[in-house]
Amino acid sequence: MVTTFYALLSRMRYIARWGLMRCTIPENVQEHTCETAMYAHALGVIRREVFHRPCDAERLAVLALYHDAPEILTGDLPTPIKYHNRQIRRAYRDVERAAGEKLLGMLPPDLREAYRSVLEPEEGELAALVKAADKLSALAKCIEERKAGNREFASAEEQTRRALAAMALPEADWFLEHCLPAYEKNLDELGTME
Questions:
Q1: Could you tell me if 137 and 160 are in contact, meaning their C-beta atoms sit under 8 angstroms apart?
Q2: pLDDT(194) > 70
Q3: Of the CATH numbers 3.20.20.70, 1.10.10.10, 1.10.3210.10, 3.40.50.300, which one belongs to the domain with range 10-182?
Q4: Of 7, 46, 93, 130, which residue is most buried, by most CB within 10 angstroms?
């Protein structure tokens, strides 16, 4: 049996994000996924090291790596459509689940169970941290676009900041306070190897 699973995953780079927005810097699902995994890992480390709560930061990173995998089959539905109302949200969740099942079916039987736990949506604390990481990635994109002079992302930045605050996650709040201000700096201000 030849599995198409990994070949499909490699095609994340062809799925554009922010389809309704004029982007100064294009972004694809693969880039977003990598960034989300880094933020998820960071939130897990913050939970463990700053707030002294147990957390498997590596598990968070893996969950984030696959959080948008169904989009390989569904595409990236723009946020205003995806979250327009409960009925659309529910229907899209069903479509994502079906896409996840389809992806699992592309794996050899011996590998399916190992991937089931990362392709099926989780509930609870880990899912909340991955969702916060996803929002942090969106917020970083909004800041990047604003810094490039693109006012197209002003509302999205404000909405994303509100969404993160509404999550009431201490780890995300800590990141926003201690890490996010650096995103306003230029390369020289960030410090390079001298």
A1: no
A2: no
A3: 1.10.3210.10
A4: 130
Taking Cα atoms as reference points, which of 137, 101, 106, 92 lies closest to residue 119? 101
Residue 192 pLDDT level (bands cut at 50, 70, 90): confident
At 1 the pLDDT is: 73
What is d(CA 6, CA 13) in angstroms, rounded to the nearest whole number?
Answer: 13
User: Alpha helix locations (H) across the chain?
Assistant: 5-9, 29-49, 57-65, 71-74, 79-82, 86-105, 109-119, 125-147, 154-167, 170-178, 187-190
Q: DSSP string of 161-178?
A: HHHHHHHT-HHHHHHHHH
CA pair distance 31, 34, nearest whole angstrom: 5
Region of residue 186 (left: phi > 0; alpha: psi -120 to 50; beta: else): beta
DSSP 128: H
Q: Comparing C-alpha atoms, which of 59, 60, 25 is closest to residue 130? A: 60
pLDDT value at residue 121: 72
